[in-house]
Amino acid sequence: MADASVSEGAALPLRPSDAGALAERCGVSREAAELLITSDVIDLHLDTFIPPRLPLVRYDLFKHHQRVPLRGRFFGHLDLPRVVASGLTGGMWSITTNPFRRRSRRWVVFQKNLARFRAIVAATEDRLRFARSVAEYHAARGAGAHAVFLSIQGGNALDAAPGGLAALGPDQPIVRVTLVHLTNAALGVTSSPLRMWRRRGLSDRGRDFVRMLNEQRVFVDLAHINRAGFWDAVAVHDRTQPLIATHTGVNGVRRIWRNLDDDQIKAIADTGGTVGVIFAQNFLRPRGGARDASLVVDHMARIIDVAGEDFVSIGSDYDGAIVPPAELRDGHGYVRVVQHMLDRGWSDLRVRKILGGNFLRSLALLRP
Q1: E strand or H helix at 32
Q2: Whole-model pTM above 0.90?
Q3: In a domain, 256, yes or no
């Protein structure tokens, strides 16, 4: 492992006095930079733990990657120094499941990956801290640390776990589980073209899995599930807890298998949850549409029109094999999205809600 200082010039959180330098570096207004720096900025889906796990890829999370492979296409969007330099105060970091491993191995490998992730956080010497609640998030931020909300993408990681998440002990660290990913699983059917069945939703096992997450007070993430499975989850879910979709676009702007329709957005909002807008250009851009960060704001605007400004967040999917618009590929996408929001005349309050306030409100319903 490289030098565990999460620095290379960016060891401390951004301060208001850094606004001018951030604005110049990212080509945005000082107003946008100051608004970002003084806000809670929480990304609902980060897959930056994937590149170091890939065979033949030497991607050091502790190194500031100024030049990344493929120029920010698919991977290389973030590293730990850029997490700090981007103004990101918290993130839902994902341990993504390899669905092609056999059932028993997925659980074994997940435990190894969890141990590895814990070692990474420990090696940052308190620059990163695990958080499971609003109180723990504020404690991390008060200490100048980035808050890690640990997540699982692909609930089939737990197929062989005795008792599900309870197998990790009473202080298990998982805050969110995405029920399925890009392939079908014992729990249910994916929305992706790789699915084998179109009309089936959650299995009985999948319904029980939702109930287990409710008992653990863990977010049920409805990104990637097919429409039938989405509504199955809504039907069995504890309505006193918020549902979320952490990284998605919306069909009202770009109709594609990956995105949510208006009824699904309303269903999430009705529980007090939030919808994180992805940075993947192919899920955002309608035919003839723009090619910059305004695409992200187009989808945010649609969610606001459907459900209101309290139910939209950022869920970039950085390092999740996505191709963002060009200006969002270098890890400084957040402040550029802020600039596009301000360009539309959105209030500072609305912007702060989207950057982190809406997620913290949802989290407070789950874990104060």
Answers
A1: helix 30-37
A2: yes
A3: yes
DSSP 90: E
* CA dihedral sign, ordered 53, 54, 56, 60: negative
pLDDT averaged over every residue in the chain: 92
Q: What is the pLDDT of residues 40-86, one digit of tens each?
A: 999 999 999 988 887 766 788 888 887 666 777 888 899 999 999 99
Q: What is the domain count for the chain?
A: 1
CATH number of residue 291's parent domain: 3.20.20.140
Domain extent at residue 290? 16-366
21 found inside a domain? yes
- 147-156 pLDDT, tens digit each: 999 999 999 9
256: amino acid identity, one letter: I
Phi, psi (rounded to 5 degrees) for 335: -70, -30
Question: Strand 90-96 vs strand 174-178: parallel, antiparallel, or unpaired?
Answer: unpaired
**Dihedral of the alpha carbons of 304, 283, 149, 41, in degrees to the nearest 10:** -50
Residue 158 lies in a domain: yes
